[in-house]
Amino acid sequence: MQQYLTEGLTLEEQIGQLFVAGLPGLTVTPEIKELIQRYHIGGIVLFKRNLQNIQQIQELTQSLQQIARDAGHRYPLLISIDQENGMVRRFGDSTTVFPGNMTLGAIDDPDLTREIAQATGREMKALGINMNLAPVADVNNNPANPVIGTRSFGEDPQRVARHVAAMVQGYRDTGVITSLKHFPGHGDTAVDSHLALPSLPYTLERLESLELIPFQAGIKAGADSIMIGHLYLPALMAANETLPATVSPAIVRELLRHKLGYQGLIITDCMEMNAVAETIGVERGAVMALQAGNDLILISHQYTRQKGGIEATKQALQAGEMTPQAIRESCERVLQLKARMLSWDTLPTNDQLAIIGQPDHLALRDRAYALSTTVVRDTPQLLPLSLAPEQRLLVTILQPSSYTFAADKTQATESFVGELRQRHANIESVVVTAENAAESMRGIDRRASDFAMIIVVTVNANLDHYQGEFVRQMLQYGKPTIGLAVYNPYDLLAMPQLGTYLATYECTPPALSAAAGVLFGEVAARGKLPVSIPGMYSLSS
């Protein structure tokens, strides 16, 4: 006779295991303590607001686990985070800065990707974080995508699939729970689901030929969970309901569970994103997501909504809108995963923090970034730079008007200027924003003759019109000009006149250090474009 892990748990305890909640600060709050003790929530999600340094992070996770243990939880909490690396790294610089997905796609070495996941996983485990809401399995084949971009491994579904599988394997090697996202694929959208509901207007045949390929590879590699994206798929969902896939049985149960045969845990993206919160509402959305077949409901921010989602679920059960059997099945999947991956006996100790930033990890970081910089073109052959000491180099750093909510907004461009000055002292740098662009241009205009060369650093210029216009004006000076895209590589679309153009895929110190080395000929540029630049460059093989 089969033994169920849910046996002996009350229905309220089972419901609680299906919810993952965030908290506002660096320490345990009375509200999160109540959610663990009284409402029996099974998971916590951490964000940058919760993380200060490695000692504080470990103390926070230890405190949360102790509360759960004292409250009688059979298994430790799932403590999750979005540590995608690159530009989505919640730890900031507290842990080793490893390349993000598109950087790894430009290197295109799945063995290296697996090593990066292993090292990231080791550092996460030392901090007491046992679940990474990664890897991103989206195929970024839309240059106008405002939310995925460099979070994807690239445009080719087979390349993305190879790296997704390698990353899942790397995290599994270190015992970190993985989550493929954002099912069934957020790459070919032009709307950020943090702000509104994106639509993916494709048939199942198209999804099977492109979007689903990396998810299938990740499932085969042993992905522990899959996150449903807040997307509307009119070809697969009911025509009379413009709702997110998160609450659609057609996507969650029929496509993922039945057609793809996925048996693992299914988790929602945050239910407080506007694609849900501004349409059906967070509390009602939590009920509908469970009815659709999700196992874990992610409510990242507000206590009232977290508590409200749990209470709404209880009311739906009382009203007969869902059955205790459905709750038990989802809870069983949660507990099976916890029983397999977590133990009260293996929580990290203080001495394990020594693994963070250890020499092997730093060497791996440097080896990876040295392979990442891409020289897209250099028709005037400006590289490598060879400047006489008296020649003045102007570096203009264009700041974006906005970022996706998912991205880390820390810019490392000051470190880039520092890297350049180590190689050529005669540098002037100007930080340009949409607000000061006209004034900055007037200042440069007065002194244009002083500069022998210009480097223009751009961030998502193809989506940020002022940047392209600024660069086009700079080119009128006739000075040798180099463009460096430090985020999405599509910036060349906004400034096609540029003859020399490089891409780093992320604005992190090690990525920019590697780019400085390429500019001055110290290292060869080995990265290959993992996406096409429409009308200009096809996908690198």
Automatic annotation (TrEMBL):
Keywords: Glycosidase, Hydrolase. Residues 10-337 form the Glycoside hydrolase family 3 N-terminal domain. Gene3D superfamilies: Glycoside hydrolase family 3 C-terminal domain, Glycoside hydrolase, family 3, N-terminal domain. Coiled coil: none annotated. InterPro entries: GH, Glyco_hydro_3_C_sf, Glyco_hydro_3_N, Glyco_hydro_3_N_sf, NagZ_Beta-hexosaminidase. It comes from the Bacteria. It holds the Pfam family Glyco_hydro_3. The keyword Hydrolase applies. Transmembrane segments: none annotated. The keyword RNA-binding does not apply. PANTHER family: BETA-HEXOSAMINIDASE-RELATED (PTHR30480), GLYCOSIDE HYDROLASE FAMILY 3 DOMAIN PROTEIN (PTHR30480:SF16). Belongs to the glycosyl hydrolase 3 family. This is Beta-N-acetylhexosaminidase. It comes from Dictyobacter halimunensis.
